[in-house]
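Quick one, tokens below:
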């Protein structure tokens, strides 16, 4: 969720045809329906993290202004940029950034089913995770887009010493192999999804899709499935998931030269939408797909530029490998979890008091 150029691509990888080593995981948490927003913390501050031209609202402000709400017709969660207020010069536009109250450690899988992702000139959305003391504890970007590009990207950001070798992934579009936040202005080790339906208008036209993140001792993997290609292992809404049935991931960062256990701590899952900032507003990046001046020509004014700047999410489901301390801190017991999976959740609950990232 930090600056990294989508184009040009630095490397081409050969297509990998062998699935990544996998495991079976049991569901421990579900964010869905009318209770979707119950266990999240909203940032409640201007964007002092990536210098975006937004103010991230508190939970009460976001809900009352309907920048975060559950659509009663579809039961899907909506998170969006303010598209109705008039913003004058030197002011910022309202938006949302929220993270789970629970952190998930090695031995976790999280699956996000989305119908729509934010896009448009100046728009910088992400579905990602990090540990509270970033860059210590690392960052996993499952989905990130910017402006009007046609493909999303995924990747890692870590302390120095994490590099990528031996990747087993379907994408041949590898931007970089050094994950250190100190390298290449914190570009991270980024892979671009070759599927044009992974972002923007094409994502919406395809009915959205599903992002799967596996945070395992053997490495980190990300899958993206456009709606028509979502496998039965996911559409069945089972209380368990076997990642070996998902095929080759789009992006893979094996532990061979970047140990998941060494460089990554339990992660808060995060949705956010900022505007302009270090990435979308960078002159060269903005000019790739948009014209004009990012803040002046898009953030300012009546907000009609942001009619497509919203997430629509059907669910986020989190799974755990039995025997791991997956849930580090929770504000409430897992909801809507089958009895068998709940037993795993309770057996893996650790009571360590870990401060959440504000």
């Amino acid at each position: 969720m930090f600056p990294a150029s989508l184009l040009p691509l630095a490397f081409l990888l050969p297509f990998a045809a062998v699935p990544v080593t996998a495991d079976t995981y049991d569901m421990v948490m579900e964010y869905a329906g009318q209770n979707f927003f119950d266990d999240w913390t909203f940032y409640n501050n201007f964007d002092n993290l990536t210098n975006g031209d937004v103010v991230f609202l508190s939970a009460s402000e976001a809900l009352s202004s309907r920048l975060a709400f559950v659509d009663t017709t579809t039961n899907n969660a909506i998170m969006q940029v303010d598209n109705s207020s008039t913003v004058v010069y030197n002011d910022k536009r309202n938006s949302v950034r929220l993270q789970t109250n629970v952190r998930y450690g090695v031995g976790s899988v999280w699956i996000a089913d989305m119908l729509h992702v934010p896009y448009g000139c100046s728009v910088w959305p992400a579905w990602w995770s990090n540990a509270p003391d970033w860059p210590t504890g690392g960052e996993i970007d499952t989905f990130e887009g910017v402006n009007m590009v046609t493909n999303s990207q995924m990747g890692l950001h870590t302390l120095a010493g994490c590099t990528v070798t031996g990747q087993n992934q379907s994408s041949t579009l590898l931007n970089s192999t050094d994950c250190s936040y100190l390298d290449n202005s914190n570009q991270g080790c980024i892979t671009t999804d070759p599927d044009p339906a992974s972002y923007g208008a094409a994502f919406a036209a395809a009915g959205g899709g599903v992002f799967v993140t596996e945070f395992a001792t053997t490495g980190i993997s990300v899958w993206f499935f456009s709606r028509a290609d979502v496998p039965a292992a996911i559409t069945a809404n089972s209380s368990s998931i076997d990642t070996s049935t998902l095929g080759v991931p789009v992006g893979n960062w094996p532990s061979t030269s970047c140990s998941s256990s060494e460089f990554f701590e339990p992660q808060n899952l995060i949705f956010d939408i900022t505007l302009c900032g270090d990435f979308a507003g960078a002159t060269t990046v903005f000019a790739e797909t948009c014209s004009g001046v990012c803040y002046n020509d898009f953030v300012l004014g009546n907000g009609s530029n942001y009619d497509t700047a919203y997430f629509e999410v059907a669910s986020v489901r989190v799974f755990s490998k039995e025997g791991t301390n997956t849930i580090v801190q929770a504000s409430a017991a897992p909801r809507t979890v089958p009895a068998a999976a709940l037993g795993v959740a309770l057996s893996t609950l650790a009571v360590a008091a870990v401060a959440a990232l504000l």
